[in-house]
Amino acid sequence: MKRLLLFLSTLITSQVMAQQSISPTDTLRSQPPVLTSSAPRPTAEKNELKVNLNESGSHFFKVTFLNQTWLRFNESNPGTTVISEPKTSTFDIGLRRTRMQLFGQLSDHVFLYMQFGLNNFNYLNGGFNPTASSNRKIHAFFHDAVGEYLVWKNKDYLKIGAGLTIVNGLSRFSAPGVSSIMSLDVPVFAQATVDQTDQFSRKLSLYARGQIGHLDYRIALSDPFPIQTSGAALPAYGPNAIYALKGHQKQFQGFFMWQFFDKESNQTPGYNTGTYLGTKKIFNLEAGFITQKNAMVSVPTAGDTTYQDMNLWSVATFLDMPLNKAKGTAVNAYLGYFHTNYGTNYLRFNGSMNPASGLLSGYPAGTQGNAFPMFGTGNVVYTQFGYLLRRDLFGPGNGTLMPYAHAQIANYQRITQTLGVYNIGINYLIKGHNAKLTLDYQNRPYYQASGNQLAPAGRRGQVTLQYQVFI
């Protein structure tokens, strides 16, 4: 840690010295005055913390920082409790994501990528256990730690890497670049095993990725974590599939994009940009999969333990391109179909940075706070659309707006009707993705038991204001 702090101090100091190495006072002292009518040229503003390791800059090391703060009002699902008290609504302040990335091209063939940070840090510090002591100071962890080898110098045909990584299959939203999200948040259901058999969507993996012509590909062999190490209470055996509590199988996954126009960045391992804000012309056809043998287990009848494979796949189209370059307008759109087979009747409720800590008896397990059936065996359609208004909408340097809408529509085996979760919102892009405010409204269903199934019993809303700062 001392070495890390020393490096960061040196990096920041070098940036400051680079910008201040010749001040106006120093220039006047060292040179005679020159009469000119020309105004001084403004100094180009740097937008990154980067150290070049060679003269050309092809070898470099870079640091980024991201902070996403949420202010949120949520209508609680029925039965919700907060620190053992029933609550019909909540207001909370939290850190959805606080991250730092350290990465660089260390030689013609060697790339290093690391990410450290925390997620979902509100007054419950990511989780609340009324029967045990909690420690809000131990929430940050390494998200990624990857070493990568570029097989052909200056060519992205093949990169081979290994470590803790988000290089995933299934979809672009299974490995989202969170600093460039078009809406308030990503569709978390696409991070299919999040915090069950992975570490916040990261797995210990060996992978190959690259770009060949219009094709962008990544394939991975992953060593998933056992569900016993998730930090949550273990699920009970029953007729509904759960993650297997016995055995250990490797996971295979892949993701492929056919890029019709501009190529997307292939620099960092796995991460996919949310929106380029009109700086690129992107139209992709995409497909991906995740498969694991005997990943799930159920007990349909007493003494009849059945293991099932997990098989997930998706197909999608993604568009992000300028409409009027002179005005700076652009559009972002996505439409994806997901087939999610986690085994018979698998269903998992989840709520992002859930503001509730418990649930009264008599209500379906896991339905407190802002939770809804986010993951399940069945079929999901996810779509989003955003429109970037003209640049400098409020005057030069004062930013612009980007309204959006998105929907998750699912038919899961254990719910009696089609699920629909809908969001509308607007971004105030103060300085692109580097500084932005996002106001979002979500409308979701809540559920009651109906035999072994769950039936919708009403709907609730949530309003969130996010302030993102990124460099």
TrEMBL record:
| Positions of the UniProt region annotated as Disordered | 22-46
Query: What highest taxon heads this organism's lineage?
Result: Bacteria
Cite the record's Polar residues compositional bias ranges.
22-40
Keyword entries, A-Z: Signal
Signal peptide as annotated in the record: 1-18
Could you tell me what this protein is called?
Answer: Porin
The organism named in the record is Spirosoma profusum
The beginning of the lineage is: Bacteria, Pseudomonadati, Bacteroidota, Cytophagia, Cytophagales
